[in-house]
Amino acid sequence: RPRQELDAVDTVCPYCGVGCALTYYVDRSRGAIAFAEGRDQPGSKSRLCVKGRYGWDYAASPQRLTMPLIRKESSYPKGPLSADVRGDAYNDRGRAGAGGDRSAKLSRNGKDRKRKPGGLVDYDEVLPHFREATWEEALDLVARRLKEIHAELGPGAIAGFGSAKCSNEEAYLFQKLIRAGFGTNNVDHCTRLCHASSVAALFEGVGSGAVSTTYGDVANAEVVIITGSNPTANHPVASSFFKQARRRGTKIVYVDPRASTVAEHADYYCQVKPGTDVAFYNAVMHEVIRLGLVDMDFVRERVSGFEELVRTVADYPPERSAQITGVDAGLIREVARVWGEAKAGVIYWGMGISQHTTGTDNARCLIALCSITGNVGRPGTGLHPLRGQNNVQGASDAGLIPMFYPDYQGVDREGTRRRFEQAWGVELDPERGLTVTEIIGSVLKPGGVRGMYMLGENPFLSDPNINKVRKALSQLDFLVVQDIFLTETAEFADVILPASSYLEKDGSYTNTDRRVQLGRKVMDPPGQARVDWEIIQDLARRIGLDWSYASSSEVFDEMVALMPSYANLRHDNLGRTGKLYPNADPEHSDGTVVLFDERFNTDDGLAHLVPAQWLPAKELPDAEYPLVLNTGRLLEHWHTGSMTRRSFALDTISPVAEVYMHPKDAADRGLAHGQTARVRSRRGAIELQVRVSHREQLGNCFIPFHFREAAANLLTIDEIDPYGKIPEFKFCAIQVEAL
Ligand code: SF4
Predict the structure, then answer these.
(1) pTM for this predicted structure
(2) Where do the H-state alpha helices sit in 326-480?
(3) Which of 77, 101, 225, 721 is at 20 to 30 A from 428, Cα to Cα?
(4) Is the CB of 18 under 6 A from ligand 1?
């Protein structure tokens, strides 16, 4: 149909933290989206990557959940019910299978459909273990069971995992339900697996977990450091801003163990060994100090902890760091000089920094490097952790974390707690709650968590050491999963609630830049699936909370009233392009690009430097497991693949799980490109295809974690960073062998 006959609806891409603005053109006569187009917005300038342009068809998948489901009494024990992940399939003897059963049929609501290559939950196998239910019956059961567990074992026996896929309003209501309804702060979401360590370091160092400047501000920078990140795959549109800036003269320093395509655009490429970031950045600071390139005026007026930092980095001359990091001492010196002499520089970092047991220390070094060179608080300077999911910034802002109410207001501060008690009309728990990573461990301990509400999360594939996750989920007394598909985690559920995709509701989303944008409803949810905030509200009422929100904008207004950072924002003043927060006048201003121009958000207004010593990773290679595994994402897929592997275009481009290996590592094992190999760690084994790649370092392998049939997190270690509680997804010891 011609464009003018299509209905244009503005919303936001559901994938990465760039949060590109897009418009769907909807053919109402077919009830379907015809195509998507990028919309002009300061942060995306009408650009979209392949996921934004083509990756929306999953919402119309015939596999959408359309009815509440209740596990049949006879269907125990709980656990993965599909053949390829059942029983001992995931152990060091079994086959997880490369590609799984490629011809199995999927069924939903009587419709059969050939399964595309690749592993998805087999509905035919799993659905017989559940029966359809009405919403009344399902919600009554959820409320009754969670209340019983709460009454019998206390608030600490309840926990909730929210999701960064949800809107701000849903995140706000979900944490409010767990806190106000069950009296516990055991509520968290996937930021714990993403940038929790960055947030811990930023909050400690500058008093705010958000970015201090936007990625578009790269245009004002003389030099940028991009580190622990592959933005071409993970933040493609932001990456286009970096490359554009490079063409206009901004120097790029790229620091990463993998030689991604960014390395080809960089002026300086430092291929650090995995897990050596502290040693690298301490050496850079050592040189900055030695060369007299510290901005002493800035340090005197705006920084605390400089003397201790100087003492610590004195032990990291470039020659010593070169031995640890593998980066030539001369290159470290050159990077220090280029950074120290630049008038304006920004550091952008990704999960190669955060997803380590030293993730908080890694981020502390970046904060210190920016601070001692005065690179904060002016255009073209600052700190920017490139956030993962499209609403991970917003979900964190909205309080979906166990130590903070909305806007990072500490649950353990009495005055703050009293204010929230007054606002919500209930008594609240004065103790910090458990994180995602701690909740899984707690289920396995006496007196731990027994009942869980899981909203849009899929920890069976996303969390480390999934055999442990399997054990925990199967031992819960009660699990309710609210999602749009039958995920691997839903296979453990007692009740499954059919939810809405982002296309089926109004709500706001906050991107990595702090831009709050409105996502607008494009179509109705399928069958009896419902909008998530309405489900949460119905459950809240059943457990005795007096909620009566009539719209997501009403929820937003209540949330904003409790969040000084979001002051003045309303659904009706976000416009078509959204607004940055903080924003004193959203009717006339896009918001504040650069934070901390006069003071930091800490109590004393200073940046607090926290020096770090380099520590090796928790599980080092040895004779039996001589290679290092790094896990991450591909351009075409997203997290556990529940959405992108149901997108025809995306799964067609990238249908197969692969292990990326250095040519010599492959050759030493008699492995050729395309051959199937077994990868094993101390925790399990998977089989998948070999991709020989010059982008990998000798001794290091990369596996994306999107593929159920070759689940990378079967291999990963569940050690966590002591501050941010983030797992070590970027480092564990493995062996790869021919079959
Ligand atoms: Fe979506 Fe990120 Fe791609 Fe933009 S860059 S279209 S937000 S996945």
Answers:
(1) 0.94
(2) 329-341, 351-354, 359-372, 392-397, 414-424, 436-443, 459-462, 466-475
(3) 721
(4) yes
